[in-house]
Amino acid sequence: MSTETASAAEQVAALPVTDWAEARERAYAAGLAAALPAVDRPLADADGLTLAEPLAPRTDLPAFPTSSVDGWAVRGEGPWRIVGRVLAGNSPPPLAEDGTTAEIATGAMVPEGVTAIVRVEESTRTADGRITGRPRPQPEWRRPGEEAYAGEELLPAGTPVDPALIGLAASCGHDTLRVRRAPRAALLVFGDELLTSGPPAAGRVRDALGPAVPAWLRRYGCEVRPADVTGPVADTLPAHVGALRTALADADLVCTTGGTMHGPVDHLHPALAELGAEYVVNTVAVRPGFPMLLARLTGPEGRTRFVAGLPGNPQSAIVALVSLVAPLLAGLAGRPQPVLPHAALAEPVPGRGDYTHLALVRLDRVAGTAHPVRHVGSAMLRGLAGADGFAVVRPGTTGEPGARVPVVPLPLLPGERAW
To answer: Which structural domain, as residue segments, surrounds residue 311?
Structure first.
């Protein structure tokens, strides 16, 4: 072993390794402490964002008594003389006399003075044009406030905005929502030995993370523009410092790929030191993905930004995303830390000693089981392409068939619900 290699190995061995579950909590707490500012967004632009304040109706729901059937709004005893028609979208005059009725449509406002509504299919018309029928015992209209009262909290701050919430907000009378703005993210690809097009050849491998990581980040709700992806960045300290400075000028989160160890061309740690970064987490006791990190920087204007160092091996990088970046982004959005679902292992999954093992699995949601997939080396992506998430095997344990274990789901599109 060379002196340089031995030195790097010794530095790695001396790092304060953080337990995986604790690392997730630290990342979430750091994000929550730096939660993004609240903004007003039109309903059409709010999907995938997060409520920054509770959702409450502006009026009672419904705001006025509303017919729940097509029929006849009647007053007093029948037979009833027809005095009008009430359609949805109108404010009708009251029924002023007993023995009168107005034809009424579903969703129409019930006139004052109405004592009952007779369903159209349960009514008949007499020879002289009057209406007869027997009203049902229960009122056939929705009362004001039946669904909610004005100002009542329907959903708390921190709720993800999805199409159902948007529809509810519209019914409550809202044109805009107070939400946390989407985090801006950037990606720096380290390793000037990487190819950015064509097949691997002549000792150079194709960069798989430059195209993939921005798509994962968008599924976590980030805004990532093509101009926010840079690389490969040259394997020099000045190049790393310059790339980080440029990316951090606009981004809330900068993800980097590779360079998280302490080898001769790993410049991420020295670059962070030069920029005055503070580690939130520096290496995590998880396999794959061990040499990952999360650092925090505060600019002169007081704005907090983050750097997530993802390992260069592709699957390890995704492990770092689900382990550190996902909880960080939940905190930045002001969302609760997601509770991990559980599934029963369909096959054995080995433990990793003192490390948490994140094992790629495919889920059978009907049976509630998790099936380990093949081709799961830290440098492989084939298994990831057919997986739904990672089964969590705790340190010092082995995943036996039938054991119920937490599962870290892979992200879907913003607003989608995975479980």
So the answer is: 3-36+182-332
Looking at the predicted structure, is the pLDDT value of residue 377 above 60? yes
**131-133 and 123-125: which strand pairing?**
antiparallel
CA-closest candidate to residue 245, choices 258, 259, 230, 235: 230
What per-residue confidence (pLDDT) applies to 15? 58
| Inter-residue contact 295 to 277 (CB < 8 Å) | yes
Which CATH number belongs to the domain containing residue 104 in this structure? 2.170.190.11
Same domain? 157 vs 208 = no
Which of helix, strand or coil describes residue 327?
helix
26 sits in which H/E element? helix 20-33
In angstroms, the CA 202 to CA 200 distance is 7
Are residues 371 and 247 part of one domain?
Answer: no
Rounded mean pLDDT, 185-191: 94
Residue 117: strand pairing partners = 73
Closest of 326, 308, 197 to residue 257, by C-alpha: 308
What is the domain count for the chain? 4
User: Residues 384, 318: contact at Cβ < 8 Å?
Assistant: yes
- What's the token pair of residue 299? 């600019």
Give me 39's structure tokens: 């903004």
Please list the residues that pair with 144 across neighbouring strands. Answer: none
Give the percent of the chain with pLDDT over 70: 95
Q: What is the CATH number of the domain that holds 217?
A: 3.40.980.10
CA atoms of 160 and 223, how far apart (whole Å): 16
